Amino acid sequence: MLFKYTAIDKTGNETAGSIDTINKDVAISSLQRQGLVISSIISAEEKSFFKREISFFDRVSNKEIVMLSRQISTLFESQVSALRVFKLLGSESSNKILRAALIDVADDIQSGKSISDALSEHNKIFSPFYVNMVRAGEESGKLDQIFSYLADYLDRSYEITSKTKNALIYPAFVTFTFITVMILMLTLVIPKISDIFVESGQELPIYTKIVVGVSDFFVNYGIFLLILVIIGGFFLWKYNKTEQGKSSISQFRLSIPYLGNLYKKLYLSRISDNLSTMLSSGITMTRAIEITATVIGDTTYEKLLNKSAQSIKSGSSLSESFTGHKEIPSILIQMVKVGEETGELSNILNTLSKFYAREIKNTVDTLVTLIEPIMIVALALGVGVLLAAVLMPIYNISSAI
C-alpha cells in the first residue's frame, strides 16, 4: 500500500515523499528508523467500497500456525537470527494476513522489541498461551525447543477439537434434514390430502386429526413461528455475549447427557496439556493457570481456574485448589497430588492429557457408532407415523367406495 508523508529530517528541514509498505504502522516504523519525525502520513490508495479487496473470510488456520512453529524451530536450530527468520517466513507465506503479521513482527524485532512482545501485537493470530511460551523460551534460551513444543501442542489440540466437532456434524445434518422433510410434508403435502378427508365426511382417527391440526398450524402460523425463531435466535446470540449468558450456556452445555461429559473431557485435556507444556518450559504455576484460563474456551472452567490461581497465591497447592469443584474429577486431583509429592507434576499432567485424549477419542467413536442407527430409526419412525396418519384414512375411503 502506498503512503504519502511529510516529515522533519535530522537537519531540521521538512521533506515529503511516499513509501510502499504493508500497512500504516509499518510505514511509520520504517520512516522513524530513517531518523525522520513524521508530520503527517496518509494513504495514497484510497479505494471505493466496490474496489476494496474483500478479506472477510481471510484467516490464519491452526495448521498454518503449526507449520510456522516447526519452520521457526528448524531455522533457530540452524542458528539463523530471529530477524532473518521472520523476514524469510514473512516473504514466503502464502496467507496474506500471516505474511503481513510476520513482516510486522520482523520490523518490531529490528526496532528492539523481543519476539514475545512483537508476537503479542497480533493477539488474533498468536494466543496468550503462545506468546507466554515464547517469552519463557527467551528467558531460558531454548527458543528452538519451545517452538517445537508449540507445534506439537497445537497439533494435539487441533486433532482433539476437530474430532469433537466432526462428531457433532453428522447428527446436526440428519436432524436438519429430518426437520426440513417434516415441514415440507406438513405445509405442502398434508394440506392437499386433508381436503380429500373433509370432502369424504369420514370420521378421522385421532392421530390423523393431530397431524392435520399440526399441518394447519404450520400453514396458517408458520411465518409467525419463523419470525419468532429468528428473534429468539438473535436474543440468544446477544445473551451469549454477556457474562451471565456465557456462564448459563456453559453450564447448560456441560449438563447435557453424554455430550456434557464429552465437553468436560475436552476441557480437562486442554487444562492438563497446557499446564504440562508451560510448567516444563519454566513458567510459574500461577502464571500457567492464569494463561490457561484465558484460552480454555469455556466460562465455567475459566472461573474455576481463576479461583485456583487465587488459592495458589494464598499458599494452596494445585491439588488443594482443585478440590471441591465438581467439574474436576477426583482421579485428576489424586494424580496431581501424587505429582506434587514426587516432583513429577509436569509428567503426571502430560499423562493425564494423553488419558483424556484417548477418552475423547473413545467417546466420539462410540457417539458416532450410536448416532447413525438412532437417527435413521428416528427419521423412519417420524416419516412412518406421518404416512400412516395419511394412508389409513385414504384406505378406509377407498374401501367404503
Automatic annotation (TrEMBL):
Location relative to the cell: Cell inner membrane
Keyword list, A-Z: Cell inner membrane, Cell membrane, Membrane, Transmembrane, Transmembrane helix
Pfam families from the UniProt entry: T2SSF (PF00482)
Segments traversing the membrane: 167-190, 210-237, 374-395
Sequence ranges assigned to domain Type II secretion system protein GspF in this UniProt record: 69-191, 272-393
InterPro entries per record: GspF/PilC (IPR003004), T2SS_GspF_dom (IPR018076), T2SS_GspF_sf (IPR042094)
GO cellular component: plasma membrane
Membrane topology according to the record: Multi-pass membrane protein
Family statement drawn from the similarity comment of this UniProt entry: Belongs to the GSP F family.
Name this protein carries in UniProt: Type II secretion system protein GspF domain-containing protein
